Amino acid sequence: MNERLHTFKTLANILDPCSPNSELQDKLKRLDRQDWFALAEVALQHGVSSRFYQTVKAFAKTEPFPEELQTRLENAYFQNAVRNTLILARATKLLQDFKANKIDTIALKGIYLAENINRSIAERYFCDIDLLVKRADLPKAIASAQACGYKPSTYFDPADQNIDIKHVPPMFNAEGLPLEIHWTLLEEDEPFSIEATELWRRAVPEKVAGVDVLVLSPEDFAAHLCLHFTYQHRLSLGLKGLLDVVDVLWHFQSQFDWERFLLIVSSWQCQRVVWLTFSLVREFSAVSIPDEVMKSLQPAGDESWAFEQARTQIVDANTTRAGLTPDLAEFLEASSFFSKLKIGFSRVFLPKRVIARLYNLRPDSPEILKGYFLRFRDLFRGYGQRVWHPELHSSNWSDSVGQEVNRVKLRAWLSEEME
């Protein structure tokens, strides 16, 4: 087991809500100064430093917790508490306004987790407000958000097809706080099938930011987090994303309906995504997932490569990747000039509505031609030097390209239908 994986597993075990205090204290006793700093570095890398501090602070008086490290983590923890409190205060105003305008609302992710599942408001870092409304209510929701001081960041027309996005482009208030108004959980041009009307039918009442709203059912929420972490974000959320899934399964363990969950996953056609996510959960957490559930989700054939690749990617999340993107990796791997040219054209000549959102232009305006010029310019500036850089010939660069190709390969496998 390499050192990075060992440190990651140790941190995951410390932060696992299933870890008994006695085992946790015994583990902390065995840490030396170097171990503490290594764990803190990985916690920072994976966005869980506040959770790390919150978990170990109870043992700070009896365990060799380096004082300077404790002070640094404590400061970050309280800064996180202040920021999250302010975000929830802004969410209160939004939710009250939506309610006054009779806009049915489901609170998503951070603002729901902070008060209802996490152990404290400071435990989990989040930086925006995510709300789900019905598609027909988008105009009212946008108007309501604007009345609360949130301004659109770019062009958006609710009447457009918009199948390539799942929420209104971020709206920002005067403080720079982003608001994302969703009408679905996943882009409609992705190879999954999430029926929004069913989400609303199964939604349950809850108090979020002091306002009575709706939240996803535990089963929908768990499935959503699996897709959000493993497919949408390509495991880049690291331990933070994995712990979100663990926390939901742990919090709802006594009432979680596994039969309903499997029906939901099957209807969404995301069995592989959930199987891979749960395989990682089982690797790094003691939260209970029934064997029969894993068997129901298990893809046909030996897919151990997928798990090994996913484990590598989650451990290495947020480490330097030489500025590579899936598009650049695909371009560099293309075997012929015409293949590269085809990839280049497909990245420049996006649909008009996409160019409109990227450059805040109206798709029916002659200025949309300017948008395509800007798109070409930005791609050339972003990728031109990397394509022709001498580093391309180094082994480190080749390894990075190979790793990015593996990410693309894994994501393609996740989107395949179950046999």
Account of the 3D structure:
By secondary structure, this protein is mainly alpha-helical. It folds into four domains: 3-65; 83-216, Beta Polymerase, domain 2 (2-Layer Sandwich), CATH 3.30.460.40; 217-319; 326-414, no CATH class. Helices cover 58% and strands 6% of the residues. It has 19 helices and seven strands. It has helices at residues 3-15, 21-29, 33-45, 49-56, 67-100, 109-116, 138-147, 196-202, 218-232, 238-251, 258-268, 271-284, 291-297, 304-315, 326-333, 337-348, 352-359, 368-388, 395-414, and strands spanning 106-107, 129-132, 151-152, 171-172, 178-182, 204-208, 211-215. The chain has a five-stranded mixed beta sheet. A two-stranded antiparallel ribbon has the order 6-7. Helix 4 (49-56) crosses helix 5 (67-100). The two termini are 33 Å apart. The relative contact order is 0.09. The model has no long low-confidence stretch (mean pLDDT 90).
